[in-house]
């Protein structure tokens, strides 16, 4: 640990406060808003079909819900791993200090997990859970039987009641998703001590880039899972999702441009330090990865796809490239906010130095492992609660 | 009948409310020390500081701060304005622990001074506001403390402090119970509540650092604050610091 | 409200009740005892008591004075009056508690005086900074200067 600090000491540029040598919030804290952003974004995809009645994206409805759940389950892991005293993590729920946005985490997380996601998934799947409970034996059957909570009523009326619950929960879920990710943006945006973070726009920027990343993720998973299953992609669904990704991206980019324009126009204290931060310290991750390859190129690809110049087989690859670049670009955005804000010293006269070790606590390998875990959870969920089994009519397993 | 039931419920509610209010009132933490009778403040006279670093050393010894150049409860900065440079050159080698070796040719220096820094024990502390679990707090006598047994080490307070006064106590630090928790200058609370001065104030050879109690009418620090022209660091942040500087250059951040 | 909704709701309510029960056990007893302001004083009251009980490493000039009053008086009459004993003699609380067993360090080297009196352009004007090699010709500073009152020289000459 101190080897990192000795190396950082050699690489400091200008003057920083002595305590700023250690970059406290590491890659794990850049990973957390990324994961919760994916949750919020995936839920928005699900609500597209439910609330906004965009019928074309119906094939991804359950998949989006399961994706949201898988990533939500993985979300607390980078946080707890990062704590100086992880064994005391429960204190955030037992004695929360609600003047702190971070204290909201426990409640917003519990609310979103229990009241929104689990409730919605449960009541949407209930009919299938009952039929699977009858169908399967062994451990899998036992799980389904427990999930039925002893109620085997799958009549039309009860299903209608279930759908009503799902509708209500989705309506509540939309602002809850906004809160789940907005509060993370507020954690950064409300820190007046850090000029790179302090902005009222921060929660909104985080939310929109979360939407972008979530839509991209669902689209990518939909395409990947269809490929794995050897199933034809639903063209309307894919194109519609690509369209919404484009709209969200344009909004998100507009907001980020607004933030930058404000900084460059008002030229407040520390402006020169910010200019040097962008031009030198985070040039690669900000200008190259986040803006050019992470935002402008995907928007361009999506515009081409939307214009339908090419046929669907080519558009598929446009979407694949666009979504992969988007996912990288949104992570770069989180990285630039978290790490960039700490590299910029509060003295406005210097820059700290961040090294990410390859192994050990707060390392690249841990970050990658935590990032992969939700995919594994998703695979288990897809096995347990398949989003595309028999009753759904949009699946074409053989060509007609 | 309804009237009587309502009356009984109202009385019960009032009694419950009163009981709750009584338990939530602040008393003193111990019998020998009444924190309602003190309100501390700190003065730093930058015109007197000679940059010897005794304060940094005394603080590290007194408060078990690791002796490495990465963590400081207090430190001294050297500000040098060179004649041909627009921006000042600032450094703080090991926080000033071993003094300041000569670095610049004196003939090129326009003006230069030392600025000791420590936790400002703000009256509107952003660090306390952002603690998610209630591990850091402001005492009634105006000192902000950290509960090392309760802090979870989320480091939000470290990010929120505009002055860089906080740090995370390292996992190989000398005091085991403090490892992995946030730490910062406490104005040597364990000394001032016994009537002594903080360690840095005690050993400062020029009395550039001064400590006092604003509730004491004879106090030297109180007189300075009431009569001299004083400055604070980063007043635009709205934190209302309680470390007052004499002779602080407006360019110092 | 169908039975399934009631059952699902009761699962949640049960979880909340279990949480509240765990909370009673897990929250430290003195939490909130001294909390009159939730914004800035939400804390575990025992923490203040623990911090007040922390051990001191440095003593104080008043403590030195109670036994070494003549030295302190001599110090306060000279140029080093603003210095505390421990500035040079280091942390001495152990010496106060058990004077015979723990003597404070006495560093008579040039290096200690150099810390303050070496020439540095950042030091305020008028502060004595004569520390070239010619001054004293490499001898110990204390060979000529009384460290407790530096204008008192060896041989008793005062200035």
List its salient traits.
heterotrimer, A: mainly alpha, Formate dehydrogenase/DMSO reductase fold, 2 strands, B: alpha+beta, Alpha-Beta Plaits, 3-stranded mixed β-sheet, 3-stranded antiparallel β-sheet, 7 helices, globular
Task: Give an account of the 3D structure.
The complex is a heterotrimer of chains A (400), B (253) and C (159). By secondary structure, chain A is mainly alpha-helical. Chain A contains 14 helices and two strands. Chain A has helices spanning 2-10, 27-50, 61-74, 76-82, 91-94, 104-135, 138-147, 156-189, 202-229, 235-266, 271-281, 283-306, 312-343, 364-384; strands at 13-14, 350-351. Chain A has a two-stranded antiparallel sheet. In chain A, helix 2 (27-50) runs antiparallel to helix 3, helix 2 (27-50) packs across helix 9 (202-229) and helix 9 (202-229) runs antiparallel to helix 13 (312-343). The longest helix of chain A has 34 residues, at 156-189. Helices cover 23% and strands 19% of the residues of chain B. Chain B has helices spanning 2-23, 54-62, 126-130, 156-160, 189-192, 199-203, 220-227; strands at residues 40-45, 74-82, 89-91, 109-118, 136-138, 144-146, 167-168, 182-183, 209-213, 243-246. The relative contact order of chain B is 0.20. Chain B is an alpha+beta fold and 253 residues long. Chain B contains seven helices and ten strands. Chain C has a two-stranded antiparallel ribbon with strand order 1-2. Chain C is mainly alpha-helical and 159 residues long. Chain C contains seven helices and two strands; from the N terminus they run αααααααββ. Chain C folds into two domains: 3-52; 61-153, no CATH class. Helix content of chain C is 42%, strand content 4%. In chain C, a hairpin with a 2-residue loop joins strand 1 and strand 2 (149-153). Chains in contact: A-B, A-C, B-C. The interface between B and C is large, with 61 and 47 residues.
Topology (SSEs and partners):
The complex is a heterotrimer of chains A (400), B (253) and C (159).
Chain A: H1 2-10, E1 13-14, H2 27-50, H3 61-74, H4 76-82, H5 91-94, H6 104-135, H7 138-147, H8 156-189, H9 202-229, H10 235-266, H11 271-281, H12 283-306, H13 312-343, E2 350-351, H14 364-384
Antiparallel strand pairs in A: 1-2
Helix pairs in contact in A: 2-3, 2-4, 2-8, 2-9, 2-13, 2-14, 3-6, 3-14, 6-7, 6-8, 8-9, 9-10, 9-13, 10-12, 11-12, 12-13
Chain B: H1 2-23, E1 40-45, H2 54-62, E2 74-82, E3 89-91, E4 109-118, H3 126-130, E5 136-138, E6 144-146, H4 156-160, E7 167-168, E8 182-183, H5 189-192, H6 199-203, E9 209-213, H7 220-227, E10 243-246
Parallel strand pairs in B: 1-10
Antiparallel strand pairs in B: 1-9, 2-3, 2-4, 5-6, 7-8
Chain C: H1 3-26, H2 45-52, H3 61-67, H4 69-77, H5 85-89, H6 93-97, H7 110-117, E1 145-146, E2 149-153
Antiparallel strand pairs in C: 1-2
Helix pairs in contact in C: 3-4
């Amino acid at each position: 640990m101190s080897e990192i600090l000795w190396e950082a000491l050699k690489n400091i540029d200008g003057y920083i406060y002595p305590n700023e040598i250690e970059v406290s919030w590491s890659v794990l804290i850049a990973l957390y808003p990324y994961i919760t952003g994916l949750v919020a974004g995936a839920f928005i995809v699900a609500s597209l079909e439910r609330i906004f009645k965009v019928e074309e994206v119906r094939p991804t409805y359950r998949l989006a819900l399961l994706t949201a759940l898988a990533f939500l389950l993985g979300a607390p892991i980078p946080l707890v791993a990062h704590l100086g005293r992880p064994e005391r993590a429960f204190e955030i729920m037992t004695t929360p200090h609600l003047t702190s946005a971070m204290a909201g985490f426990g409640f917003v997380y519990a609310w979103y997990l229990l009241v929104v996601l689990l409730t919605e998934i449960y009541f949407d799947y209930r009919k299938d859970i009952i039929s699977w409970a009858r169908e399967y034996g062994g451990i899998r059957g036992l799980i389904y039987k427990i999930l039925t909570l002893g109620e085997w009523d799958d009549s039309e009326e009860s299903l209608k009641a279930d759908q009503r619950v799902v509708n209500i929960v989705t309506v509540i879920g939309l602002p809850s998703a906004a809160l789940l990710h907005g509060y993370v943006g507020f954690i950064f945006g409300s820190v007046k001590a850090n000029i790179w973070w302090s902005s009222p726009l921060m929660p909104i920027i985080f939310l929109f880039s979360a939407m972008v990343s979530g839509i991209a993720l669902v689209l990518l998973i939909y395409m990947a899972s269809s490929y794995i299953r050897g199933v034809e992609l639903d063209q309307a669904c894919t194109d519609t999702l690509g369209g919404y990704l484009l709209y969200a991206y344009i909004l998100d980019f507009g907001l980020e441009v607004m933030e930058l324009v404000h900084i460059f126009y008002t030229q407040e204290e520390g402006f020169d330090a910010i200019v040097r931060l962008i031009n030198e310290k985070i040039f690669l991750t900000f200008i190259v990865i986040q803006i050019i390859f992470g935002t402008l190129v995907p928007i361009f690809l999506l515009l081409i796809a939307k214009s339908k110049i090419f046929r669907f087989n080519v558009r598929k690859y446009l979407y694949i490239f666009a979504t992969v670049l988007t996912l990288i670009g949104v992570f770069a955005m989180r990285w630039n906010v978290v790490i960039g804000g700490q590299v910029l010293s509060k003295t406005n006269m210097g820059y700290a130095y961040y090294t990410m070790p390859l192994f050990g606590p707060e390392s690249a390998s841990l970050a990658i492992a935590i990032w992969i875990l939700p995919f594994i959870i998703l695979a288990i969920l897809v096995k347990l609660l398949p989003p595309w089994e028999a009753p759904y009519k949009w699946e074409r397993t053989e060509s007609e | 009948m309804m009237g009587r039931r309502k009356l009984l419920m109202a009385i019960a509610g009032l009694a419950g409310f009163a009981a709750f209010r009584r338990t939530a009132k602040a008393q003193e933490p111990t019998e020998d020390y009444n924190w309602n009778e003190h309100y501390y403040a700190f003065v730093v006279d930058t015109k007197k500081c000679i940059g010897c670093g005794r304060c940094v050393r005394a603080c590290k010894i007194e408060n078990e701060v690791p002796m490495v150049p990465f963590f400081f409860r207090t430190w001294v900065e050297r500000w040098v304005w060179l004649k041909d440079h627009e921006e000042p050159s600032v450094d703080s080698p090991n926080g000033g622990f071993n003094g300041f070796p000569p670095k610049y040719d004196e003939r090129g220096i326009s003006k230069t001074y030392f600025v000791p820094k420590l936790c400002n024990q703000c009256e509107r502390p952003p660090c306390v506001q952002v603690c998610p679990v209630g591990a850091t707090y402001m005492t009634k006598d105006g000192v902000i403390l950290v509960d090392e047994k309760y802090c979870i080490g989320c480091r939000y307070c470290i990010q929120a402090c505009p002055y860089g006064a906080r740090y995370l106590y390292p996992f190989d630090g000398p005091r085991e119970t403090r490892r992995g928790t946030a730490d910062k200058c406490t104005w040597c609370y364990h000394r001032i509540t016994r009537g002594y001065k903080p360690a840095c104030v005690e050993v400062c050879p020029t009395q550039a650092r001064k400590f006092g109690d604003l509730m004491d009418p004879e106090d030297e620090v109180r007189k300075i604050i009431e009569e001299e022209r004083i400055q604070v660091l980063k007043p635009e942040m709205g934190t209302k610091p309680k470390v007052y500087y004499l002779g602080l250059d407006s360019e110092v951040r | 409200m169908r039975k399934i909704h009631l059952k699902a709701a009761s699962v949640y309510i049960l979880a909340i009740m279990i949480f509240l029960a765990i909370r009673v056990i897990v929250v430290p007893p003195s939490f909130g005892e001294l909390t009159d302001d939730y914004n800035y004083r939400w804390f575990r009251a025992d923490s203040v008591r623990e911090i007040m009980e922390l051990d001191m490493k440095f003593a104080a000039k008043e403590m030195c004075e109670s036994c070494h009053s003549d030295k302190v008086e001599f110090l306060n009459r000279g140029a080093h009056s603003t210095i505390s004993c421990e500035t040079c003699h280091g942390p001495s609380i152990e010496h106060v508690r058990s004077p015979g067993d723990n003597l404070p360090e006495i560093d008579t080297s040039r290096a200690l005086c150099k810390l303050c009196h070496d020439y540095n352009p950042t030091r305020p004007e008028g502060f004595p900074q004569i520390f070239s090699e010619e001054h004293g010709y490499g001898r110990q500073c204390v060979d000529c200067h009384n460290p407790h009152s530096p204008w008192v020289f060896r041989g008793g000459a005062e200035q």
